[in-house]
């Protein structure tokens, strides 16, 4: 919008930049947050005397004639707001794409001192979530004889013992998460990618991680699942 001449406040441009940010963590957490930001923005208009007046003020004197035209502007801005809400919901502009939104119950609440969760899935159902409460954690299996106790212990769900004692490291730096295989015996897969030992890879909300035969889903509190599209 910055390339056009208009009377909208800078706050609306900032809101648009945030809604369309490339970095998913810089965007609004959900549609409700974006709509709340929209409602907090007051749109100014200019009277015939050259003075600026907020849209909520009542026109007086020569400004009365501007009221009807102001109503048209309000309708136009409403259409813009609707377009913004639609662009925040849909990814891409394909008219044949039909989004299937995730179940709101699968959106984990924001909790103090919890950076993310590793959720164990069995038969496409989450059965247990392990909280990541530090910026640098090791995921693995406890070995009392060797005195090894990882930050996140998968022993209880690793019945086939395919998880190494120190299998992967997950760390949080600034606004990004990374996962690193620690030379595990049965490898680590991030989606379809088999991780190279000791080479960090970007980890995002909704990513599927296999530690040996254990399937985990990485989830960030307050972030909704990415919509699934059916063409």
Explain what this protein looks like in three dimensions:
The longest helix has 26 residues, at 64-89. This protein is elongated. It contains 3 helices and 15 strands. A 6-stranded antiparallel sheet has the order 5-4-14-13-10-11, with no helix packed on it. Strands 7-6-8-9-12 form a 5-stranded mixed sheet, with no helix packed on it. Strand 13 (208-211) and strand 14 form a beta hairpin. Helix 2 runs antiparallel to helix 3 (64-89). The chain has 2 domains: 10-89, no CATH class; 104-219, Sandwich (Tumour Suppressor Smad4). With 231 residues, the chain is an alpha+beta fold.
Map the helices and strands.
Layout: H1 10-19, H2 31-39, E1 44-46, E2 52-54, H3 64-89, E3 98-100, E4 116-122, E5 125-132, E6 136-140, E7 152-153, E8 168-173, E9 176-181, E10 188-190, E11 193-194, E12 201-203, E13 208-211, E14 214-219, E15 228-230
Compact overview of the structure:
The protein has 3 helices and 15 strands.
Oligomer description: single chain
Indicate the CATH architecture of the largest domain.
Sandwich
Mean pLDDT: 75
Number of helices: 3
Which descriptor suits the 3D outline?
Answer: elongated
Q: Structural class of the secondary elements?
A: alpha+beta
Enter the CATH topology name of the largest domain: Tumour Suppressor Smad4
Number of E strands: 15
Supply Rg: 25 Å
Q: Distance between the terminal alpha carbons, to the nearest Å?
A: 31 Å
Helix content: 10-25%
Low-confidence stretches: 89-106
- Biggest pleated sheet: 6 strands, antiparallel
